[in-house]
UniProtKB/TrEMBL annotation:
Protein name, UniProt field: DUF1697 domain-containing protein
Superkingdom to which the source organism belongs: Bacteria
Organism: Aurantiacibacter zhengii
Pfam families: DUF1697
Length: 177
């Protein structure tokens, strides 16, 4: 079975507190195997045979077990590596400020163009489209940026969850173990 990672949105932020031991147990009860969490920010490694939509199952699990409406992006090691490779800011920007927003679907070229137009003049961030991803260099930090998750999701027409380059590399290193 291929190893996968669930990148969960809104875990341990905004009041959505979940203990990682409880999250691992919930995944195991749901039939996922070899479950492991990385940091306390909603990164869960697991094995899955691919016979069902793991993302939808995980979202249901989060709602039923923890009362959290969340979003789960499921990716393989290869998909994480591709996201890093296609991120034009990885290596040129500061790793903790360069993010990939993993998206549930591929936005249209027009939607990305609209995001760029609507963002013009709002901040120093650099943007680049990716494969079911949006790459951002939050030059001055994500915390003060006007390029927020709701702003992005409205324009792209799909949900996503962000990880910085440092986190993506840490996840990939753990997946290799």
């Amino acid at each position: 079975m291929p190893r996968r990672v669930a990148l969960l949105g809104s875990i341990n932020v905004g009041g959505n507190r979940v203990k990682m031991a409880d999250l691992r147990s919930a995944f195991e009860r749901a039939g996922f195997t070899d479950v492991r969490t990385i940091t306390a920010s909603g990164n869960v490694l697991f094995d899955h045979d691919g016979s069902s939509d793991a993302g939808a199952r995980i979202e249901t699990l989060l709602t039923n077990d923890f009362g959290i409406e969340s979003f789960a992006v499921v990716r393989t090691y290869e998909e994480l590596a591709r996201a890093l490779d296609e991120n034009p800011f990885a290596g040129s920007g500061e790793d903790k400020l360069v993010h990939t927003i993993f998206l549930e679907s591929q936005p249209t070229t027009d939607a990305f163009a609209q995001l760029e137009v609507d963002h013009a003049g709002r901040g120093m961030e650099r943007l680049a489209p990716g494969t079911k991803a949006l790459h951002i260099d939050y030059v001055d930090g994500a915390g003060n940026s006007k390029l927020t998750k709701p702003f992005i999701e409205r324009r792209l027409g799909c949900r996503g969850t962000a990880r910085n380059v440092t986190s993506i590399r840490r996840i990939m290193e753990t997946m290799e173990q």
